[in-house]
Write a structure and sequence with these properties.
Blueprint: H1 3-7, E1 13-19, E2 23-29, E3 36-43, H2 47-61, E4 63-70, H3 80-96, E5 100-104, H4 108-118, H5 130-151
Parallel strand pairs: 1-4, 4-5
Antiparallel strand pairs: 1-2, 2-3
Helix pairs in contact: 4-5
């Protein structure tokens, strides 16, 4: 199989999560691993309920791996929010036994707000979708890096 064919061979979907204290933005890839689509924003309650909701989504979309945004400081140091995201990633790995990847998500929320402004969404409407858009940006970056590695 050629490298190009390997890069677009059908595979299982990947789910990306933009984890916050109150909400989790969710995005999933297509089966080819080429595009990312927003799914929804989960409102967090507690670990048990968060994992139950996430499990339903993983089954619904047939995802076999997860990418969790890792919000490092601009210096690359670990931020308090990154520690929380890393703990969430560990819970996902423990609960579902799936590969979980941490992905540097510095500035994705800022970029998500820019995308929403460019799309004509008023700032008052950003809260309900900004986490989903951030999850899409996280997944886009992860998928692009994976395709680049496949072509090396």
């Amino acid at each position: 199989m050629s490298l190009e064919a390997q890069a677009v061979a059908p595979q299982a979907r990947v789910m990306a999560l933009d984890v916050g204290d109150r909400r989790v933005g969710v995005a999933v890839s297509d089966e080819l691993g080429l595009t990312a689509q927003p799914v929804l924003t989960l409102v967090r309650t507690n670990r048990k309920q968060d994992m139950k909701s996430l499990g339903r989504l993983l089954r619904r979309f047939g995802c076999t791996e997860v990418v969790v945004g890792n919000p490092l400081y601009m210096s690359g140091d670990i931020s308090p929010q990154a520690l929380k995201a890393q703990a969430f990633a560990a819970w996902v790995r423990e609960e579902f036994g799936l590969p979980v990847h941490l992905w540097d998500e510095r500035l994705t929320t800022t970029e998500a707000h820019r995308h929403l402004h460019a799309a004509g969404r008023p700032g008052s409407e950003h809260r309900e979708v900004v986490d989903q858009v951030a999850a899409v940006l996280i997944l886009d970056g992860f998928l692009a890096a994976r395709r680049a590695r496949a072509l090396e």
